[in-house]
Amino acid sequence: MKLLAKTLLGLENVLAEEINAIGASNVTQLNRAVSFEGDTEIMYKANLNLRTAIRVLVELETFKISGVEDLYKKLFAMNWQDYIGRLQTISVDSIVFSKLFNHSGYVALKTKDAIVDKMREIHRIRPNVDIKHPDVRINVHIAENVCTVSLDSSGESLNRRGYRTDAFAAPLNEVLAAGMLSLSGWDKKTPLYDPMCGSGTLLIEAAMMAYNIAPGIYRPEFGFERWITFDKDIWEKVLDHAQENEIKYDGNIMIFGSDSDSKALQATKVNIANASFSKRIEIKKEKFENTTAPTENGFIITNPPYGERITTDDINALYKEIGDTLKHKYTNYTAWILSGNEYAFKHLELKHTKTYSLLNGKIECKFREFRVFKGSHKEYKTSEN
Ligand SMILES: C[S@@+](CC[C@H](N)C(=O)[O-])C[C@H]1O[C@@H](n2cnc3c(N)ncnc32)[C@H](O)[C@@H]1O
């Protein structure tokens, strides 16, 4: 099978490594996606195990088209009865980069018509469209005159792991949080701390990585489980394999979180309990400025506010406080900070050692590493002069 995993900008490399690790072949990085090849088992594994994939598409056919009637004809000719059951519901997503069509919505409509007409011809009954919970999701991608038709094997997007039932303020997309942890190079052993944990996304993703827990293990369902070709034996084998590989809890991996807002703490608590991590993650309500380092050395990974909701003065003061706190209380720590506020970053008054460009929703962000050691502040000042 030809497969395509979609991801967020800046995480293509991390995703390609993950795909190699599940044993796929012909792994190729694209823009916000990685293509690869594999059998049914690889497709199930991809959905269950890839931390930085948003969805996994299975390519059915690629063909050239000359216009809308040609598109309809070629879609009608496909063997939809092999993929869609007599009483199943469908939905169609379309992405169009082509002068042949003005509207991606029109392409979706034509695709749906072709499929419905074909199914009616075969089964004498038309399949219903269900936008929210279809049995089979069809994806049509048109780039100029090339049309690729795929099935979406994930269903609901894969960042919806199932543990986050309570969200506070602006929670990170789970895929972005997992990607940040991978990019940071955290070794999954060093004590990890998020002092502005919000709903706890980074903490829970970190715990899942540290204990080798598959990110999809809490999900109620994947799209492919509704397919007429679903192979329960292979799926159970994939699930058993993932569970056998989990690392047993022994109290050795320390993960801490804190936040100044009690509602954030409450959300984190609920989400941690959903993931059954209450023993594995320690949390408390505290302003970062008032904290003391939970361990002698460690790894901080955090996503402070960027200032959309508070004033410039306040945001600059907050970043100054974060920088001072790191310099005075977190010497020997490596800190990774994601922020969409370049100007506020400067108020940390720390020199970064690595940087990645990422998108948090629509906000362009920098994800930066700061190695904090005694005298960091003085060195920064010197380097600025
Ligand atoms: C953008 S949110 C973090 C979202 C989080 N990464 C998640 O995925 O849910 C920023 C958090 O910083 C917290 N915060 C702001 N100022 C703080 C401070 N001085 N000390 C501790 N937490 C603070 C806010 O309460 C908020 O929960």
What does this structure look like?
There is one protein chain. This protein has helices at 12-21, 40-49, 68-76, 104-123, 174-184, 201-210, 232-244, 262-274, 312-329, 342-346, 376-384, and strands at 2-6, 25-30, 33-37, 55-64, 90-97, 136-143, 146-152, 192-194, 255-259, 281-285, 298-302, 333-339, 354-360, 363-371. By secondary structure, it is an alpha/beta fold. The protein folds into two domains: 2-151, VC0802-like; 174-213 and 222-246 and 253-384, Vaccinia Virus protein VP39 (Rossmann fold), CATH 3.40.50.150. Helix 2 crosses helix 7 (232-244). The longest helix has 20 residues, at 104-123. Bound molecules: S-adenosylmethionine.
Furnish the topology, listing elements before pairings.
Elements: E1 2-6, H1 12-21, E2 25-30, E3 33-37, H2 40-49, E4 55-64, H3 68-76, E5 90-97, H4 104-123, E6 136-143, E7 146-152, H5 174-184, E8 192-194, H6 201-210, H7 232-244, E9 255-259, H8 262-274, E10 281-285, E11 298-302, H9 312-329, E12 333-339, H10 342-346, E13 354-360, E14 363-371, H11 376-384
Parallel strand pairs: 5-6, 8-9, 8-11, 9-10, 11-12
Antiparallel strand pairs: 1-3, 1-4, 2-3, 4-7, 6-7, 12-14, 13-14
Helix pairs in contact: 2-7, 3-4, 5-6
This protein binds S-adenosylmethionine.
